[in-house]
Amino acid sequence: MIASKAQSALEYLMIVALTMGITIPTAYLFLQYSSESSAQIIDAQTNQIGRNIIDTAETVYFSGEHSKIILELNMPKNVDDAYILANRELVFKITSDVGVTEAVFFSSVKIPIAEDGDLSNIAGSGLKKIKIQSVADGTGGTKVIIGKFEG
Amino acid sequence: MGRKSQAALEFLTTYAWAFLVIMVTVGALYYFGVFDFSKFLPQKCLFPSQFECLDFSFTGNQIKIKLVNNLGEAINVNSISITNDAATPLSCTSPGAFSGWQPGNDNDITFTGCTGGVFIAGERAEAKITIKYCAPATTGCPEHIVNGKITAVVSSP
């Protein structure tokens, strides 16, 4: 009677050990793969958004002064900041497990872009509305201003 | 009463011994890397798509990567550095700055004389690479940073 109980207890423990032995490595490998996929998805989304903003800025520029387009974009997580440098570089600052990386999108040299207010407002995950507008640059030319749409 | 408590104590002592033996065995297996499941993961090179990683190798004391400039803009590379999270971080002789990396072109980047960072033949090693660059067509050439990570097995030269 006791031997029978001991056998069933041992078999039970062996089944638990075998299950754990399969589950733990599988979970570890799955987590590793999913974290890599997540980084690639964020990279692809950021690239699409950056290209979309620059393409729209070029469209607005050639449409003439006072033309305006509102973009609705779903910003991914891990985008901590957004800004424009030297009137032609749109920069998204992205934090990942590798470190901080800047995704840079260049407008054409002849198409000046500038921030309309603080562009860092569009950072952070979620749906964001971005206003892209062509305005006079004060020197007889045109520039494109990019900012968060408040409306 | 005394007999029962003695039996209970002996039972617990036997349990404690069994537990101790199991813990020592598991500890030894862990020490010898039996539970290091990362070796079942594929070798990989993770860079943003703006600097797509085409190829990579850890050979001898060298690390080589082939990256493509997908920025759509010619750039000047100001510096390239390498490290990892080991207690003694990976240290290599980095390639110097270079200019005129045209869009769409690939570039071989080679780090030599790598030491530390568990960079041992046959072992799986990790390298974090930081590239600082700027676009000369932009006024003032503002500097940008890009980080990537390579995980690979170090092969003998």
Task: Please explain how this structure is put together.
- The complex is a heterodimer of chains A (151) and B (157).
- Helix content of chain A is 41%, strand content 34%.
- Chain A has one helix at 2-63; strands spanning 68-75, 79-85, 89-96, 99-106, 113-115, 126-136, 142-148.
- The model of chain A has no long low-confidence stretch (mean pLDDT 89).
- Chain B has one helix spanning 2-31; strands at 44-46, 51-59, 62-69, 75-83, 91-93, 98-101, 106-115, 124-134, 144-153.
- In chain B, strands 1-9-8-4-6 form a 5-stranded antiparallel beta sheet, with no helix packed on it. In chain B, strands 2-3-7-5 form a 4-stranded antiparallel beta sheet, with no helix packed on it.
- The interface between A and B is medium-sized, with 28 and 26 residues.
Characterize this entry briefly.
Chain A is built from one helix and seven strands; from the N terminus they run H-E-E-E-E-E-E-E. With 151 residues, chain A is of the alpha+beta class.
Shape of chain B: elongated
Major beta sheet, strand line-up of chain B: 1-9-8-4-6
Strand segment tally of chain B:
9
Content of β-strand of chain B:
35-45%
Q: Terminal Cα separation of chain B, in Å?
A: 72 Å
Rounded to an integer in angstroms, the radius of gyration calculated over CA atoms of chain A is 26 Å
Helical residues, percent of chain A:
40-55%
Provide the residue-averaged pLDDT of chain A.
89
What ranges of chain B have pLDDT less than 50 throughout 5 or more consecutive residues?
A: none
Write the topology of this structure.
The complex is a heterodimer of chains A (151) and B (157).
Chain A: H1 2-63, E1 68-75, E2 79-85, E3 89-96, E4 99-106, E5 113-115, E6 126-136, E7 142-148
Parallel strand pairs in A: 5-7
Antiparallel strand pairs in A: 1-6, 2-3, 3-4, 6-7
Chain B: H1 2-31, E1 44-46, E2 51-59, E3 62-69, E4 75-83, E5 91-93, E6 98-101, E7 106-115, E8 124-134, E9 144-153
Antiparallel strand pairs in B: 1-9, 2-3, 3-7, 4-6, 4-8, 5-7, 8-9
